[in-house]
Design brief:
Elements: H1 4-8, E1 13-15, E2 22-24, H2 28-36, H3 39-54, H4 57-80, H5 102-121, H6 129-156, H7 162-187, H8 191-196
Antiparallel strand pairs: 1-2
Helix pairs in contact: 2-6, 3-4, 4-5, 4-7, 5-6, 5-7, 6-7
Function: Required for efficient N-glycosylation. Necessary for maintaining optimal levels of dolichol-linked oligosaccharides. Hydrolyzes dolichyl pyrophosphate at a very high rate and dolichyl monophosphate at a much lower rate. Does not act on phosphatidate.
Pathway: Protein modification; protein glycosylation
Enzyme class: hydrolase
């Protein structure tokens, strides 16, 4: 749980306009982390945009995996029923349960699935093998940093405990591995038939 002194003298919370993400008033780090914690929403918007404009079957499958991951998160929250730290600190919290962290589970699903896609699905398309590997490694490091910052933001802003973040990351990573291999082994062979429809 959060440290007692964090909960006993809660700061005044300020919401980012048009969202319900709150950060301690006057805290620039908190404000930055509040914006970072919105990255899962940006990922969802990106998926919808890609699906509408490209209609690529693997992207649709990836998005279905994200939605299934969200469903698993909802089920786990209602089975475990672990409360959030500093109950009542925030004025707008949609779910009373914090285990596992939804943001953490979603971002780690996205990142682990993307890692698997980068290293197992994408094939070398030219002779620049060194450059190809370099950009994959750089992108992987950036994604790992993003997932870490999103996860940390949820603890810093007192929405979750470290254990809720950790188990969210484990659940999201596990779901990503399962969904990636299901997509590769079961769905990908069906893609040509589906595309012919």
């Amino acid at each position: 749980m959060a440290l007692e002194e964090q909960c006993s003298a809660p700061p005044r919370w300020q919401a980012i306009s048009v969202t319900h993400v709150e950060f301690p008033e006057g805290d620039l780090t908190g404000k930055l982390l509040a914006y970072i914690s919105l990255l899962p929403v940006a990922i969802l918007v990106g998926f919808v945009t890609l699906i509408v404009f490209k209609r690529e079957l693997h992207t649709i499958s990836f998005f279905i995996g994200v939605l299934l991951n969200e469903g698993v998160n909802w089920v786990l929250k209602h089975i475990l029923r672990e409360p959030r730290p500093c109950a009542g600190a925030h004025t707008t919290v949609y779910a009373e349960y914090g285990m596992p962290s939804n943001h953490s589970q979603l971002i780690w699903f996205f990142v682990v699935y993307f890692f698997l896609f980068l290293y197992l699905r994408m094939h070398q398309t030219n002779n620049a093998r060194c450059v190809d590997l370099l950009w994959r490694h750089i992108l992987s490091i950036i994604l790992l940093g993003i997932a870490s910052f999103v996860s940390y933001s949820r603890v810093y802003l007192l929405y979750h405990t470290w254990s809720q973040i950790f188990y969210g990351a484990v659940a999201g990573s596990t779901m990503a591995i399962i969904w990636f291999f299901f997509t590769q082994e079961v769905l990908t062979p069906l893609f040509p038939k589906i595309a012919a429809w």
